[in-house]
Amino acid sequence: MRKTLIAGNWKMNKTPKEAIEYIQLIKNQVDREDVEVVLCPPYLVLQLAVEETRGTHIKIGAQNMYYEDKGAYTGEISPMMLKEIGVDYIIIGHSERRSIFKETNEMVNRKLLKAIEHQLTPIVCVGESLKQRQEKVTIDYIRMQIKIAFKGVSEAEAKKTIVAYEPLWAIGTGKYASKEQAEEVCGAIRKLIADLYNDDVSQQVRILYGGSVTSKNANDFFTQKNIDGGIIGGSSINEDFISLVNYGH
């Protein structure tokens, strides 16, 4: 049985002071044993978030990292640094990293391998543009993303890797895939992983949906057969996150 995971990607929001106030407000209300909740604040807030959530079931993730341990990489953060302060999860290849910062599939692969090496649980993001969906190449495009991202990843490592499907046309736009569209692609992703490895691996990999998920539509998505939770943007930085995490209650 795959445990539901809800990851809140704060993006570039909340100062350290705002973050502490927000975590204090929500932490007791999103602390569920049956749902894994991961908060992914900006770098400056990570250590404070680890300390503030200690003693709860809430885990902390980073939004990005570099694929080297240390060195002359101005402005970058290494997985060693994240691990030392108590970070457990890492988002890799978010659509904004790919589009704004020009991250390639090869870079995503290097980050995934480095995250695994340092025992950070990776959340690998994949997804198509509106043009690709209209041209009906969604699955082909995602197949390519997954094939490159998972190069050199063993079966045992793949089982612990989380995949997040985020259609680019639904990120921060207020638009979102229907539950049927999301389930179709997440089911296809599971099949792609089975083709790459085997059915045992594909049945253990958790697949999330991301793209304008709110408390109003969360239950529709999270009750689908192949959707094991969500990666949440806008709704993760306000009190809507409480209702979202408590979907179905």
TrEMBL record:
Its EC number is 5.3.1.1. It is an enzyme of class 5 (isomerase). It holds the Pfam family TIM. It catalyses: D-glyceraldehyde 3-phosphate = dihydroxyacetone phosphate. Substrate binds at N9, W10, K11, G172, S212, G233, G234. GO terms for molecular function: triose-phosphate isomerase activity. GO terms for cellular component: cytosol. The active site is at H94, E166. Keywords: Cytoplasm, Gluconeogenesis, Glycolysis, Isomerase. It is found in: Cytoplasm. GO terms for biological process: gluconeogenesis; glyceraldehyde-3-phosphate biosynthetic process; glycerol catabolic process; glycolytic process. SUPFAM superfamilies: Triosephosphate isomerase (TIM). Homodimer. HAMAP family: TIM_B. Belongs to the triosephosphate isomerase family. Involved in the gluconeogenesis. Catalyzes stereospecifically the conversion of dihydroxyacetone phosphate (DHAP) to D-glyceraldehyde-3-phosphate (G3P). This is Triosephosphate isomerase. It comes from Natranaerovirga hydrolytica.
